[in-house]
Structures are given as structure tokens and as C-alpha cells.
């Protein structure tokens, strides 16, 4: 038999084979990246389409749903009421807690307020479940027999994670969403100024801005699209603006809402007011960037002392130390 020559090996692996596999994976990743960049879909298209259909139904007076949708809604409401009654009997549910959790869900981008009841129930059940799991693992099965006081600390950490974990996770999502909305708000106000100067109404301007900013800032586009739809079918336009301020935990958005309400009430020019707000928000963003830049030297002091200066000393003094060592060894 003729033996086929093998290529160079590294740690027992054929270098040519591993290189070919890595090149194939890299080519596949490039193809997937090109495909995802070419086929960009609007994340709000489906939701905005459904909301527009609902608005048309409300305008036409069709407010009754089909029997199947009605039954599913009743089942979901019944389940929520059962959970609510159970938590009320256990004295762990108050209406203020439900309102506060619904507010946090709105800040995180979740529209269904019934999830607030389930989250409160999860916050009541999860510490018990994690505590029982920790007790079984640490005291019954003794997976860490060398731990003494650490067992109590681990149990406390599990109970704390079960109680505060869902709320912390929800707060992180809300913070990231608020930061994304803050970045796109000045551009949105500039587009609103252009739409107002072009003669569009407020709801048409919000709808246009939502379409233009939907891909760059999908969270802000989603909020503006919902506001445009609410402006179209709500009896009081002030309520639509109040809902926008309710869904976004941002003082800038509250300022925009206040400006919109005053413009609707007193008839002041909308374009000039929005232009002033846009300039203020851009200055605020620049000041925030300058503040972060001013804090950078103080933040970099500890990494500089711990990681950069020792390496620098080794590079500078290393050759001299080696020369001195060689001289002493030769003597």
C-alpha cells in the first residue's frame, strides 16, 4: 500500500485540516453576515400593521372580536385573576405593587400589563424554590462539605437572587432601552421639525418619523408609531402624549410631551419649540460625552498602575538586569 504523506501536525492535529476547517467556517460566517446585511427587515412592520388594522376597526365601529379571540382573552384573564386571588389570599399582593411592576414593564418595552401579576408571583415563589434547591445541594447531598459559613452565605445569595433577580433583569432591559431612545431623540426632533414645517399634522409627523427612524432606532420608532396610532383614534390627544411619557423613563421625552401638550393647548408654533428642544438635547448629549471624557484619567489610573507600568518597567529594566546577571555569572 502507498502511504499518503501527512502534513505538519501541532499537538497531534493536522495543521492543514484544521486550517481548512477554520477557513470554511470563516467563509460561512462572511456569507451569513452578507446575507443578514442585505436582507434587513423592519422589526416594527408586523406590529405597526396590526395596530393600523385595529385603528381602522375602531374608526369603523368594529369593536367586537371573533369568538376564538374572545375565548382566549377570557381564559387569559381568568388565569390572571386566579393568580391575583392566590397572591391576595397569601397577603403578598397590593395594587401599588402591580402598578409599579406594570410601570417597569412599560419602561422595558413589554405592553401586556397582566405580566406584572405573574412577575410578582414569581418573585414570591422563586426565593422558596431556590432556597430549597440550595438546602438540598448544600446540606442534604453536601456537594461542598468543606464549606462551613460559606453555606449560609450561599443560601442567602440564592434567596436574594430569587427575590431580586427578575426585577434586576427587568431594570437592566429598561436601562438599555432608555439609553437607545436617548441616542435617537435629537434626530427624531429634527425630523419632527422638518415635518411640522412641511405642513404635516402631528400624528402624520410622528408616523413619518417612526418610518424614517425605524431601522436606525427601532425602540424610538416603535414608541413614535404607537403614539401616532393613539393620536389617530383616542378622544383626547393629551392622553396619547401622556402614554408616551408613561412608556419611556426619560426626562427628555417628558419635556417633549410637555411641549406637545402646551402647543396643542395654546396654539404656539410647534417647529420653533421643537427646534429649541433639539438644540438643548444635543448640548446635553455633548456635555455628557465631555463628562465621560473628563472622568477617563481618574478611571485609567488604577489599570495604568497595575498593568501598564509593571510591563513598562520590565521592558526598560529587563535588558539591563540580564546584562548584570550575565556579568556576575561570568565572574
Key phrases:
mainly alpha; 1% strand; two-stranded antiparallel sheet
Topology:
Layout: E1 9-10, E2 13-14, H1 15-38, H2 45-60, H3 67-89, H4 95-108, H5 115-140, H6 149-197, H7 202-213, H8 218-233, H9 237-247, H10 251-266, H11 270-330
Antiparallel strand pairs: 1-2
Would you write up a description of this structure?
The protein is mainly α and 331 residues long. The chain has a two-stranded antiparallel ribbon. Helices cover 81% and strands 1% of the residues. It has eleven helices and two strands. It has helices at 15-38, 45-60, 67-89, 95-108, 115-140, 149-197, 202-213, 218-233, 237-247, 251-266, 270-330, and strands at 9-10, 13-14. Helix 4 crosses helix 5 (115-140) and helix 7 (202-213) packs antiparallel against helix 8 (218-233). It is extended.
Mean pLDDT: 79
Radius of gyration: 30 Å
Q: Helix coverage percent of residues? A: over 70%
First-residue to last-residue Cα separation: 62 Å
Quick structural overview:
The chain is built from eleven helices and two strands. It has 331 residues and is mostly helical. The longest helix is centred in the last third of the chain and has 61 residues, at 270-330.
